[in-house]
Amino acid sequence: DGRIHPARIEEVVQKMQKEVEEMIKETGEQAAIDSGVPGLHPEIIKLLGRLKFRTSYGQNQLQHTLEVTWLAGAIAGELGLDVTFCKKAGLMHDIGKAVDHEVEGTHHQISAELAKKYGESPKMVNAILAHHEGFAEPQSPEAFVIIAADAISAARPGARRETIENYLKRLEKLEAVAKEFKGVSSAYAIQAGREVRILVEPENIDDTQSQILAHDIAKKIENELEYPGQIKVTVIREVRAQDIAK
Question: Which residues form the domain of 188?
Fold first, then answer.
């Protein structure tokens, strides 16, 4: 009706964007102070602030990050490991979730790449990349501390809203999709649904077909299921020869 001018809309949007950016920066700085990790790169601080607006299974991502940081520091202290390193790795282990809707890859891969980009050591990059089992081998005791701290924060009672029934249904659906394909003898969802391992009948599926099958199952999962992050599809073809010595 003419009372709202387009220029005014743009002005308000720009103002709010500036306010949100300032809020993100302040939140990230406060997170660094609360966790006792000084000297972070300004871009890392911004990414931490963005985690305030991200949830995973109903768990606030910034709160989870701070929990992992505190837990990692406490565990490292008890074990006589590098407390400062573990707290910093805990604070950075999920920063990829701040941009995983914009960048290709799993959140721990993105987190590790960001840490590398902003000058962190190979040991730090490995601790971040290896915090979910099965994607990289932990190369230091501190990397195992991050795995433990992350698991404790995610699994503690009340941390996540997802019920056990929904969780099991999601795993069952994942296995069911894989079992629909001809030549599949069994399928197992592992790593909390981050990977599905498929055993095939070796007499019906050859090595080349195994590659094609993995691709086809991955595409079907993409089209039919809803899930956070990525799911690794592993097809296993095993041939056994047996005889008996009498």
Answer: 164-236
